[in-house]
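Supplementary Note 3. Input sequence used for the single-chain structure prediction.
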Amino acid sequence: MKIIAGLGNPGEKYENTRHNIGFMMIDEFAKQQSLSWREEKKFKALVCRFEDNILVKPLTFMNESGQAIQNIMNYYNLLPKKMGFLKEKDCDLSNILTVIHDELDIDFGKFKISTNRGPAGHNGIKSIINQLKTKNFKRLRIGIKNKDLEVIPVLGFVLQRFKKEELVFIKKDLTKEVIKNIQFSI
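The predicted structure, written as discrete structure tokens, is reproduced below.
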């Protein structure tokens, strides 16, 4: 079983914002596979199953994403244990967990796949690392940086809605490339 999580903030207020590109990508993947989302309160997330995979959209808001991911990983016994009950620290979850999220250090329209990296200031990733006690999971980091970042504070920038031309590019071109890599990772 594999978990593929798209990070973002729930609610209309955050739709099409830069911080929600993880939600946007995983929504498009679910749509292309004709999957439907179901709220799972025990996980604090929206989930849908695809073959032997679970797609996840945490409903905990970005900064607490780790709660939802940990709930799912615990429920399905995917977190290695030490001596039968303690979570093993620094375990390798790279074949189990893929997280899709926005990245300020990458130019808009580009993305990178990485494993075993620190959060680089991303609070959603920081939450996941803190909850799982490891940074060794796969990340699909989608660039959101543009010239606006030079004049807008980071918090305002990540909560800014994408421009129309950016949304067209995301829906037409970027999602195709990202989805190929999601499928590669499952």
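Residues 2-185 form a domain with the Rossmann fold fold (CATH 3.40.50.1470). Residues 164-185 form the longest helix (22 residues).
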